[in-house]
Amino acid sequence: MIDKFAIRYLFLPLILLIAASCGQKQTKVVLLPQDNEEVGAISLSMGDQSVTLDKPYAVSQSGKMEVQMADPEEINKEYGGLFKAELKRPREKPPAPPAPIFEQFTLYFQQNSVKLVPDSEHILKKIIRLLRRLPPARIRVAGYTDTVGTVEKNMDLSRKRANRIAEIIATEDTGPNFLEIRGYGEHGLQVSTPDETDEERNRRVTVTILR
């Protein structure tokens, strides 16, 4: 089993999660720059120890709880097939085309909560089983809310929902996947509703597996 530790995403990070075999499997987290050169931040904790990754290509591994710096060229060479569209590209080259979708799932949540409805718990288990069978993949995890509450509160809640699903994927021994986590709040409603409308179909996270 993976040596589990808590992961908290401070704002819109791009991360590479690597399952490393060293007797006991461990999880390595690499913080990547976004294509606009911005960098998010990740807080990792295990027991009473914690570290924060907030610089491009900062690395930490469960069991060690220390921050090191990875060589961008080595990361790109070894894992470039997972996230070549996200890594910094020479400006003279055109942007890479969007990756085709392999499969997409939608998970629904209880009102004002990061807890899934019962039917979606079964779908999440299906996603975990699928990822364990697949080769390393790019996975987009996007959170949304209904229109109950303020725009600011819903944006925060959507990020928490996406973070929660990403954390489960990262700690369920699904392999060295690249995760992109986003929160959209009440933007991108699945069902158009007036303000302050309780609509379960809008309280969701989409998990998109890319080729």
Overview of the molecule:
The chain has 211 residues and is of the alpha+beta class. It has two domains: 6-83, no CATH class; 101-210, OmpA-like domain (60s Ribosomal Protein L30, Chain: A, 2-Layer Sandwich). 23% of the residues lie in helices and 31% in strands. The chain has helices spanning 72-83, 118-133, 151-170, and strands spanning 6-9, 14-22, 24-32, 42-46, 49-53, 58-61, 68-69, 101-108, 138-143, 178-183, 204-210. It has an eight-stranded mixed β-sheet with strand order 7-6-3-2-10-9-11-8. It has a three-stranded antiparallel β-sheet with strand order 1-4-5, with no helix packed on it. The longest helix is centred in the last third of the chain and has 20 residues, at 151-170.
Secondary structure: elements and pairs:
Blueprint: E1 6-9, E2 14-22, E3 24-32, E4 42-46, E5 49-53, E6 58-61, E7 68-69, H1 72-83, E8 101-108, H2 118-133, E9 138-143, H3 151-170, E10 178-183, E11 204-210
Parallel strand pairs: 9-10
Antiparallel strand pairs: 1-4, 2-3, 2-10, 3-6, 4-5, 6-7, 8-11, 9-11
Tell me the distance between the termini.
26 Å
Q: What general outline do the C-alpha atoms trace? A: globular
Number of strands: 11
Computed over alpha carbons, the radius of gyration is 17 Å
In the CATH scheme, what's the topology name of the largest domain? 60s Ribosomal Protein L30, Chain: A
Q: Count of helices?
A: 3
Major sheet characteristics: 8 strands, mixed
Q: Regarding CATH, which class of the largest domain?
A: Alpha Beta
How many domains? The number is 2
